[in-house]
Request: fold
Amino acid sequence: QIRLMESGGGSVQSGGSLTLSCAASGFAYNDYCMGWFRQTPGKWREGVAFVNADGTSTYADSVKGRFTISRDNDNRTMSLRLNNVKPEDTAMYYCAAGWRGGDWYRPTEYDYWGQGTQVTVSS
Reply:
């Protein structure tokens, strides 16, 4: 059974840092590209960061220079380091796998999702 489980969310003040993690199981993790998405009520789920199977990464402009995505293939985990967070970073954050090869930032391009972890940034 394919499973993705996020952790590490919480409340943080503006300018602070937080690290999110995603634990994967049930599929050939090392061969999969992975992504982080976020969503706030009433808005579309948006792509935040993407990491290829070889570890190269891509970011949304809104987080470039502040967030860092990484993966640990030995432990089947993926992380998202959030630095210098802003109130607009407040959202439910999701990890995704099973990228179909299209635009990485489109949620419809992924087959598997975790349940999400909430990040709340206060000003």
